[in-house]
Amino acid sequence: MSRLVVVSNRVADPRRVAAGGLAVALGDVLAASGGLWFGADAEVAEDGCSAASQLRTQQAGRVTLATVVLGRTDHDRYYRGYANGVLWPVFHYRLDLAQFDAAHLEGYRRVNRLFAQQLRPLLHPDDVVWVHDYHLIPLAADLRALGCHQRIGFFLHIPLPPPLILAALPAHDWLIRSLFAYDLVGLQSQADLSHLRRYLAVEARADLLSDNLFGAFNRVLRADAFPIGIDVAEFEAMTQAAPAQKTLAMLREQYAQRRLLVGVDRLDYSKGLPQRLRAMQALLERHPEARHSATLIQVAAPSREGVDAYGDIRRELEGLAGAINGDFGDLDWMPVRYLHRTMARNRVPGLYRASRVALVTPLRDGMNLVAKEFIAAQDPADPGVLVLSRFAGAAEQLTDALLVNPYDTEATAEAIRGALQMPLQERQVRHKRLLAEIRCHDVHWWRRTFLDTLTETRA
Description:
Blueprint: E1 4-7, H1 22-33, E2 36-45, E3 55-60, E4 63-71, H2 72-91, H3 102-119, E5 128-132, H4 139-145, E6 151-155, H5 163-167, H6 172-178, E7 184-187, H7 190-202, E8 207-208, E9 213-216, E10 219-225, H8 232-240, H9 242-254, E11 259-266, H10 273-286, E12 294-301, H11 308-328, E13 336-339, H12 348-354, E14 357-360, H13 370-377, E15 385-389, E16 402-404, H14 409-421, H15 424-440, H16 443-456
Parallel strand pairs: 1-2, 1-5, 2-4, 5-6, 6-7, 7-10, 11-12, 11-14, 12-13, 14-15, 15-16
Antiparallel strand pairs: 3-4, 8-9, 9-10
């Protein structure tokens, strides 16, 4: 059995990560093969660049965790400057928020070369290497330059933009050419795969050998969609555990006379949170019967608070929530409960189960697992309704949700009203189909399908 080597920006101990994390998907196969998980260390050295970087290793059962300590300059340019200051906004269609800086691009390239240099001596000849996400797109090219011939796969967890947006990225040709050093590239959705196919045809002049095989730069690349899922059984067990049940009982007591709507997101401009609150505002304006009846609990976990764009969206959300509560709230009812904090993961299933409607309305998302978690947490006898953005990758699979355009405030408000009024039988039918979908394509299916495809793929 070949050993699995996982490479990601963050490294996690498979024995400690809560259900639903990447470690859950990979933990059993890593342990079975005595695998290696490699990435950046949580500590950042304050002595400038990473010339004197050190490699730290520790054992987590049969899994070896190996991390590289980056210097402050390299970390800031690679992680904050390029990965999150350029790739994240561009890949989420927000060119206006990208901060193009040649020094950040060079830092991104330098750290990927450093990772390759530190990882190369740790590899065995028959290893299977699985690289994750936008932080590490050029890693395989750097490994190949050092003489690595192992099978190497890559999975992009965020969306891939259309060709014209991608082509606006400085050095986009270098970045996409780097993908051809991989044997397999996995994307979240068929839409992302279509974007890659069109980009390669127009910009890279690649030969389309089949729907999923591309020839360019003297290599053949296989690319396909592998929508990531959750561990449904684990999440259902969490829903029945004491912390979730205690949360459920508390919410049912406190909101006995209300119908709850829920949103659980990171505080990020891609999540469509201001648009969501405006839809709630429109619902209350147009449908007075929703007043004193519906309450939205919006959890917005802190995210990259040192970046100006995140401070701006926090202030906008707080202003909107205050305005809605001021205009419509009463002594015994507030339409919006806005929480700017991270909620304990073992309590979240209780919040989902207590809610009649989940609002998962990002402006763009690679997948969005909150939608799948909400489905798994529901009572099949009396399930809630999922209102889902058509711009989330999950929309390709979860077609029995109420699909909305989050930019269309009035239509989203009407969809929320429809969700609140949906008859029990229709809710049951929709939930049954959604649950069957997320069970079939769970996180274990995702891992198994990607690794089986990579194993079968030859350079």
